[in-house]
């Protein structure tokens, strides 16, 4: 992880140390998504120098959860009668999700909309449907 800008973990609990995080570049981003125990706990990652930390857990900021994406992706694909999910559709969904956090609310502990934000599925669905070819 030395000199890395980002770490994306989906493996096992407690496998990332504070020293590993400290060896990353300044303002590093960590997505420690092993569940229920992440690769490193968010408070330890922040203490070691990470600027943004996301986990799969709902009891920490920046919960990375597929419930934010999948309902809207599938709704848009089904309504648009897509034959496949394309890269363009996935990118449109990602941009739509990102658009749901207003710039005025965007900060290190708020990079994603809440999983149960009532606008997520419809905004993602429209973006996906608009990108079906």
Total domain count: 2
Shape estimate: elongated
Number of E-state strands: 3
Total helical segments? 5
Helix content: 25-40%
C-alpha-based Rg, rounded = 16 Å
Mean pLDDT equals: 96
Describe the structure in your own words:
It comes from human gut metagenome. Pfam families: Malic_M (PF03949). One of its GO terms (molecular function) is oxidoreductase activity. This is NADP-dependent malic enzyme. Keywords: Oxidoreductase. The chain is of the alpha/beta class. It folds into two domains: 6-55, no CATH class; 66-130, no CATH class. It contains five helices and three strands. The chain has helices spanning 18-22, 42-47, 70-79, 87-99, 120-130, and strands spanning 6-9, 29-32, 52-55. It has a three-stranded parallel beta sheet. Helix 2 links the parallel strand 2 and strand 3. Helix 3 packs across helix 5 (120-130) and helix 4 packs antiparallel against helix 5. It is elongated, with a radius of gyration of 16 Å. It starts with 5 loop residues before the first strand and ends with a helix.
